[in-house]
Structure formats: C-alpha cells, structure tokens
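Our preliminary data section would be incomplete without showing what the modeling component actually yields. Below, a chain of 397 amino acids is followed by its predicted structure, encoded as tokens that our downstream tools consume directly.
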Amino acid sequence: MWDRRVWRAALKRLEGAWQRAVLGVLRSGCHVALAIRPLRRIDGKPPAPRSVIVFSTAGIGDTLSDTPAIRALRESFPAARITAVVHRGRREVLTGNPHIDRLIPHAKGPVAFLRTLFAIRREAPDTAVTLRANDPDIWPLAYFSGARVIASRPQMTRFPFLVNLPVDVPDWLELPGVTQTLEVVRALGAETTDPRMVYVVPEAAQRSVEGLLRDRGLTSGTLVAMQVHTSPRLTFRDWPVEHFVSLGRRIVAEYRVRLLITGGRDDADAAHTVGAALGESAEVVAGALGLAETAALFTRCRMLITTDTGIMHLGFAVGVPTLALLHPYNAERVGPHGYGQLHRVVLLNRSLWQGEDPPQVGLDRLSPEQAFHAFCDFWREREVEAGRRGRPEEACP
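Predicted structure:
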C-alpha cells in the first residue's frame, strides 16, 4: 500500500511537470506569434461580429450558466454565426441549444488542441469570447483562431496578453454565475432581457424516461426528485446521507409522493443507501440516467431537492421547482437568477460560517428539520400558484 501511494505521488509530480513544460512551450509560442501578428487593443465596443467563437468549457453548472450570455449574442447579432467550444464531456449540455449554429467538443492534450483549432479555423471567426474555461489552452485557441477581437476577463487566465478586449468585473465573486458572463458579452454590445438558462430536452430522452417510468410502475402519482451527491473535493457542500434519509422519511409520511433518488455514477452507492432506508416509498435511478434523461425526468416531477451540483442548475434550466440546500460560501453565485418564485434556497445559518476559505463548517450543520419546513412552505406556495389548494393528503402541519 505504501509503495502504491509513493508511485501515485511520483506520477502526479511527473504529470504536473509535464503540464508545466507544455504550458511553458505554449506561452513561448504565443509570444513569438504575437510578435508576428500583434493584437490591437480595443477601446470601446468593437464592430458587430459576423462569426463568433464562444468558449464555455467548465462544468455542467457553469456551462448552463453561460447559456444566457450565448442567448444575448444571438439576440443582439442575429445575422452572426455562433460556434461554441465546449468540454467534450459536457457537449450534451449545449446540444440542441437554439442559439448555437455549431458545437465543437474539446479535450486536453496537444493532439486535441490541434484538432479543436482546425475545427475552429474552418468557422473563420472574427470575434472570440471566453465565458468560462477550466483549461489554460483555451486562450491560445482563441488567439490562433485568427479572431481579431478576443474578449475575456483577463483575471481568469495565465495568458492575459492574448486578450485585447479585457472585461473588468470588480465584483465578479459576488455576482450570480449568469450575471458574470452576461457582463463579459456586454463588452461586445450584446444584451438580453431574459437571464434564464437554456436547456432543450431531446425527444429521445423524453421517450426513454417514459419507458423507464412505465417499467417501474411510476406513470401515475406525484414524483419528487432528490439529488444525492458526494464530492471528492468540495465536501463542505455535501449533505450527509442520513440527512437525506431523515428528510425523505418526513416527506413521505406527510405527502402522497414517490421519491426518485437521482445522482451520477459516483453517487450511486450513497443514493442506494438512501433508497434502501426509505424502502418502497423511494425509487433509485442514480447512475442509470444520462444528463438528457435526468432533465426529462425532472420535467415529470413536482419538485427537485438538491445541494449545489451541476444537476441543480439543470433543474433550474428545465423549470422544475427546485429546493436548493446551499452553503453561504457561494450561495449568491450559484443560486437561481431570473426565475421569480419558481425556486427556493435553504441556506445554512451564516453565523455558523466565519468566512474562512475553504469553509471549516459544512452543510451537515443544516438540519433535516429546517429543510423539511422549507419544503412544506415551498410546497404550499407552489400549490397556491397552481390553484391546487384543498388537498388534505398534501397538507403539511
């Protein structure tokens, strides 16, 4: 075991050294290229674009949060061709988006870099905008695309010298994710009055979910989805399995609903633990559904209960009433924006967290009782809005 740990640590150091070397070569190459083809700094708004390349290569939630900015580009420049570069594993998030003309998937590595670059150059972009990216090679891709306008928030990159339309957003960390990237595209003159996220549920996913619900005898009755998630890194955002169990028991004792326990493949063990504790009142589908099928499932649910996950943003995007259990560390940034009263945030008491980063107090301090009372209030509120009051079996004390 000790030898294995040593080897893992050595491999990690070797990987880090390789990445630093590749990054150094890329930086040097970019400086040489800039000497040959310098970028003129742009003051004010540039000319309206004819072909825009949009980079959105972060996680599920961040990519969904970028979709209002893409809508703003489409509404403001209806004649422009819009191409989106998305992380290969997140392509499904933007598939079918009506504001995008072409999707280009991207992955790490020198070969993938060249493959992505050749695909981008075929679009002949005159404007490149980076909304969010986890990988440093995105900004060199924007430069080598041939675009004459490169808009981005330079604080996000190690290649700020490749940004000739820098967007300064001083209060970036205090803004909702949707607002962050809307600020970036405003530098291009793009605006929208609709800040809601965009996700189109494929018809094939709808049919697949219809079959799943039919096979499991869930075509009638009221469904409530409960997203169970365990994070390998940001554990302070996780809610304990036993809390999900306690909340689930309270809900099924007071409401005639069937709980659907959702989650990704990595969450399947925790989800099955919750499902086993809840018995016949719960159905576990964690690990069995892709992103599109999960979205289709949510459209059949009366409510979604979730912590801060990419799937929470998916719930926002498809319009299922969402009860979000959040830590105050980043609640303002990740919470819903532009949906009116469609969603409800349950926040850990701010006095329990002293502002340290990373937080030493986790979401486990948010009690199932507090979440249950928020669920009851939210349920009543949704019933009133839908005109469905007066059901004694759904009353909550």
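The CA atoms of residues 84 and 266 lie 28 Å apart. The chain has two domains: 43-186, 203-394. Preliminary results of this kind motivate Aim 1 of the renewal.
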